[in-house]
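Table S2 (text version). Query chain:
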Amino acid sequence: MLELTRLQELLNEPRQIVITTHHKPDGDAMGSSLGLYNYLIQKGHQVRVITPTDYPTFLQWLPNNPEVIIYTEKPSESEKLVHAADIIFCLDFNALSRINELGNFVRESSAVKVMIDHHLEPEGFDDFRHWSINACATAQLIYDFIVNLMNDKELINKDVATCLYTGIMTDSGSFRFPNTTAEVHHIVADLIACGAENSKIHQMVYDNFSESRLRFLGHCLLNKLEVFAEFNFAMITVSKEDLEKFQITTGDTEGVVNYALSINGIKLAALIVERKDRVKLSLRSTGEFPANEICKKFFNGGGHRNAAGGFSDENLADTIVKLKSVLPEYKTLLVQ
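Corresponding C-alpha cell output:
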C-alpha cells in the first residue's frame, strides 16, 4: 500500500487525475466526486469526473457538474482519460464491478488508485485507502481527507462545501440515521460556515421532482405496497409497465423504500423494481437488523446494515416469492 507521505508528495505537483464512482450515482457519490474535484482543481491538477452511467437530474446542479463525463455516452474519451491518468480516485465503492465496464480499464491502468469509501469488505484493488465503515457518508471521509490528511482546510470553499454537504445530507437520511454522530454535525456546521447553503441544498435535492414522479409515488403507496405484520415487514414492488406508464427516469425510485419503512412497527422494508436486464432490490431496516446480510446471501449484493441492495436474474414474481421465503429465517430478529 502507498504511504500517506508519498500520496501527499504526488498531490503536491500537478497531475492528470480521474475521479470515478459507482454506477447510478446517488447524492453521496456525486457530492463526494464533485467535492473532491472542486478541491483538486484549486491545487492545479487536471481533473475529470467519470461516472459509469447517468444519474438523477436533481443532482445535476452541483458546482462544476458540466465537467462530468458519463462513460456510457463517451466511452472512448473515458478510456483515454483513464489510460492517461496519474492518479485515479475511486469514491463510494470498494469493488471494481460496481463501475461496470469502466472497472476493466481502471484495473488495467498503471495509475495510482486511491479508494475513499465506507462500505464493508473492500476488494483490494487500491494502492491507498481512506476507509471507514463508521462514516455516515463517503463525503464525510472526503472532508477528513482534505482537512486532516492533506492539511488543506483553507481549500474548502463554497463549491467544495456545497458538494460535501449534499453527500452527507443524502447518505445520512437528512441527518437522522444512527451513524450521524456529533462529529458529523461538527463537520456539517463547518461546511455551512464555509458557504454551504443548507436550506437551498435541501430544496434542490428533495423538492425538485417531476409531476410524473409524484404521481408514481402515489401509485406505489396506493397500489403496490404490501404489509406483512407477522414479520414487521413491508414491501413495494414495481413492474416494467409501472416504470413506462409514469415515464420513470434515473433517480425517480430513490427514497421510495423509506415510505414503507416509515410505517409504525416495520423493521424491514423492500423496494423491488423490474428493470430491463434484471430485478433490483433495495432493503432498509431499523436497529440491528442486518439488511445487508439478506442482500449478500440471497441477492448478489450487500451494503450497510440498515441500507443495502442487490439484484435477481429471476423474473419479478419469482424474486418476490424468494424474498418472502427468506423472512421466516429472520422472524426472531424481526419480531423481537
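Notes on Table S2: The first helix runs from residue 4 to 11. The chain has 14 helices and twelve strands.
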